[in-house]
Write a structure and sequence with these properties.
By secondary structure, the protein is of the alpha+beta class. Helix content is 29%, strand content 17%.
Length: 84
């Protein structure tokens, strides 16, 4: 999957760590919505859960990419519910 094209865009896929995940969750939260965070870890997902799933960073996605486009790009992988 790494270094493939989606349409005319060159897509890069990198492993992500817990801090990348928390940062992504925070960027998706609405102001005042703290449901994705807990005071200790910054995330409602515990460390054991994060060890059992693969989390990736994707660079180069077209801005207009839909969830379906991303699922199609990762068609050889399993994506958990609400994983995009």
């Amino acid at each position: 999957m790494h270094m493939r094209n989606m349409g005319k865009r060159y897509i890069e896929v990198f492993p992500a760590n817990k801090s990348d995940f928390v940062r992504a969750q925070e960027s998706q939260s609405f102001e005042g919505d703290r449901s994705a965070e807990d005071p200790a870890s910054g995330s409602s997902y515990d460390s054991e859960f994060l060890k059992t799933v693969g989390i990736v960073k994707v660079r180069g996605l077209p801005y207009e990419s839909s969830d379906e486009d991303i699922q199609s790009f990762f068609r050889e992988s399993t994506i958990i519910s609400n994983g995009i």
